[in-house]
Amino acid sequence: MSPWCPRRQLAVSCGVISEDLGNVAPRLDEVRHRIASAAARAGRGPEEVRLIAVSKGKPAEAIRAAYAAGQRDFGENYAQELVEKAEALADLDGLVWHAIGQLQRNKAKLVARVAHVVQSVDREELAVELDRRAAALNRTLDVLIEVNVGGEASKGGCASGDFAPLLAAIARCAHLRPIGLMTIAPFLEDPNDVAPFFAQLRALRDAHGGRAVLPELSMGMSHDFEAAIAEGATWIRVGTAIFGARG
Asked: Boundaries of each Alanine racemase N-terminal domain copy (predicted)?
């Protein structure tokens, strides 16, 4: 099977797999070990943290290698890439696809077809469109509200002050199920310095019903997921530490 080639070609040549696929399983094991260690330091069990392997820009064979090593949750940033990979890997049972990138309304139809979770809902218009598309497919989508805790203009996510009305709007969508919050924290050299941003997301969740209402906190990536686990992350999104650097 030839490798999947992304439309946004990030220094990867079609027809050539630059990654050493043999490294995927040991890297995945190392990430799991880091998760277990971070959870133990926080007085938590490793089963409390769900790993989403971010496969953006990676070939289908890399996902197959991770799948063979027991990974089932995968995150994609681009709607078209998500659809193409889901179709290419339709023979794999139990895959759970997470849409994690900024999403335009005109891509909602694509995402509603294949995603099990949309982690980047950040405005009412997008929620309404996803609901409409999911209804047409007789599907219900789990969604997370993305919050821009760092206030960075370069990143998506609603402001903390807009969270409550957005949550209320999603609650009115019959084919969306709000299950938590997501954030992309600012990149800081010392990952421990990011902890206050993760704590802010947790506090926002706790102010709106807590875990009983919104059980999931998706926060932390390859650079800082241990700090996120310490602050209560239930989902972490890890790409580079599993698949290697892109491009």
From this structure: 28-246
